[in-house]
Amino acid sequence: MHFTSETSSDGVTRRGFTLEGVPGVLWQPDGPPLGGRPLVLLGHGGGGDKLTVAERARRCVVRYGFAALSLDAPGHGDRPRSAQDERFVTEIGELLAARRPISAWVARHTAALAERAVPEWVAVLDALDALDEPDVLGGPGRRLGPVGFWGLSLGSVVGIPLTAAEPRIVAAVFGLTGHTAQTEAAERVGVPLEFVLQWDDELVPREGSLALFGAFGSREKTLHANPGGHLEVPDFELEASERFLVRHLGIPE
Amino acid sequence: MHFTSETSSDGVTRRGFTLEGVPGVLWQPDGPPLGGRPLVLLGHGGGGDKLTVAERARRCVVRYGFAALSLDAPGHGDRPRSAQDERFVTEIGELLAARRPISAWVARHTAALAERAVPEWVAVLDALDALDEPDVLGGPGRRLGPVGFWGLSLGSVVGIPLTAAEPRIVAAVFGLTGHTAQTEAAERVGVPLEFVLQWDDELVPREGSLALFGAFGSREKTLHANPGGHLEVPDFELEASERFLVRHLGIPE
């Protein structure tokens, strides 16, 4: 894990890093180290990048004392794009503009993208857990605190198999997704989760999202559905998901 | 409006009253009057009564400084029961025990009960607004503050047409219900609402609840769905509905 930049403003330290060619950002409170502190992994949506979630990350740090981390998904942000990646971003934009559901091709592409992204997130957690940087983790022997995941749309396409595979993640916020290809991974998710659904989502058919919610193996799972399209999640759901994460990750002392 | 009892404990004053033969209870903070204070109307479920919601009422007063009010529904609590009312309570218990959906007969009975209950709630709001009791409302000229409604199951069967008819109600929490007979009233509801659904509700088919949620005319409406049966709404939904009401009614100064 190679830290490439460090800035501080309004009490929040932001560090850029790369790990095996994957660029990411880590936010944490100025001063106190990361060790033992709850960490929220933030997965961005299709066409976004690691800084799309910067405002959410800052809120996690300032309001709750959490750390937050995001990665560029394959083919996004500062990462090289294949011809298929380019086609994906173009097609997502066209589908949104035309208010049409995600095509089978986009669903296959994001599933393949998730297969690449999941081991990248696991590698980042491994690297953080083994980090020997006193300023970041608090020195050798300090471990990560409880880890949560938040990511909608493409963030969930990645986050659902990640959460199914990664025992360090203890709570997750998903949503704006729902294809039968995700059912198997969803059944293996057992942690408490909140699932955000847009009732009039033009990309994701309602029935697919409801079926995916039903498939999760978690004993505690809550569906939050609101009117409006894919990009119209109400602001109060931002706060609701933060309270959910606070309830499961705790507030650091 | 005739006050019949008054007790105080832990900072909460509880007054029993009757209005045209309907018994009710009003909770408010000790001392400061009701005038201008947010008021939450609490509708109890089938087979319950005005005190079934007492703990929720106390939380409204102690945590948020609200007032709260509940009434015995027709055929419930201290009110006379017809043979049909007796049969309703028996049948609800049998359906729950057998984990079977609400019968057409119970749906018709509760719809008829709601037709009686709605004008009773309206009469209580009228009486409170006109009340000349300085200890309660703060004297002549003091008006009610913003009014919210909370009630699940039978509470919603009454609350949905009440909220459709009563402009003083500015926000509502409904749930655990959903029959096509409620669609027309739901379409006339325009205030922000939160709708609680139990994914494995043995009395209310999921499709009926989802369709009812879709029918509400409100621009702001949020569905909260959780696993479990009719009586297994998670405790965290209690807090979620309180936060929803606080967001729309405000906290008194």
Report on the structure:
The structure is a homodimer of 253-residue chains. The first copy, chain A, is α/β, with parallel strands linked by helices. The first copy, chain A, has helices at 54-64, 83-98, 104-129, 134-137, 154-165, 183-188, 206-215, 235-249; strands spanning 2-9, 12-19, 22-29, 39-43, 67-71, 147-151, 169-175, 193-198, 221-226. In chain A, helix 3 packs across helix 5 (154-165). The radius of gyration of chain A is 17 Å and the shape is globular. The model of chain A has no long low-confidence stretch (mean pLDDT 93). The A-B interface holds A 197, 199, 210, 213-214, 219-227, 234, 236-237, 240, 243, 247 and B 197, 199, 210, 213-214, 219-227, 234, 236-237, 240, 243, 247.
Number of helices of chain A: 8
- The first-level CATH class of chain A is given as Alpha Beta
Strand content of chain A: 15-25%
Helix content of chain A: 25-40%
**What Rg of chain A, in angstroms, do the CA atoms define?**
17 Å
Average pLDDT taken over every residue of chain A: 93
Q: What is the overall silhouette of chain A? A: globular
Uncertain regions spanning at least 5 consecutive residues of chain A: none
CATH 2nd-level architecture of chain A? 3-Layer(aba) Sandwich
Give me the count of strands of chain A.
Answer: 9
The largest sheet of chain A, given as strand count, sense and whether it forms a barrel, is:
9 strands, mixed
The CATH topology name of chain A reads: Rossmann fold
Please provide the ordered H/E string of secondary-structure elements of chain A: EEEEHEHHHEHEHEHEH
Total number of domains of chain A: 1
Q: Which chains share the greatest interface?
A: A-B, 20 and 20 residues
The CATH H-level homologous superfamily of chain A: Alpha/Beta hydrolase fold, catalytic domain
- Side-by-side strand order of the widest sheet of chain A: 1-2-3-5-4-6-7-8-9
Question: What is the subunit arrangement here?
Answer: homodimer
